Amino acid sequence: MKQLTAVLVVLGLSITMGQTAARVEADPPEPPVPVAPSVGVPGVPGVPGVPNPFQQWIDDHVPAPTKVVPHAARPLAAPGDLPPELTAFWSAVQSPPTGDPLFDAWPADLAEYAPGDILDARDVTESARPTMLLLNLTGISRATLLKFRTTNSAGEPSIGTATLVLPPKAWSGPGPQPVLVNAPATNSLNKRCTPGYVLSHGMEVPTGNDFTPSPTTWALDHGYALIIPDHEGPLMAYSEPSVAGRNVLDSMRAVRHFAPDQFGESRFATTGYSGGAIASNAAAMLVSDYAPELLPQFAGASFGGLVNDYRRFAHTFDGSYISAFLLSTVLAVGREHPEILGLMNHAAQWLATSPIKDNCSGSFGALGIAPIPIDTMARVDKSLDSAAAETLFQELSMQGRKSGVPLFIYHGISDPWIPVAEAEQLWSEQCALGVAATKNIVGGEHLAAYVSSYGATMDWLDQRLRGEPATGTCPAPPARR
Question: What pTM was estimated for this model as a whole?
Answer without folding.
Answer: 0.89
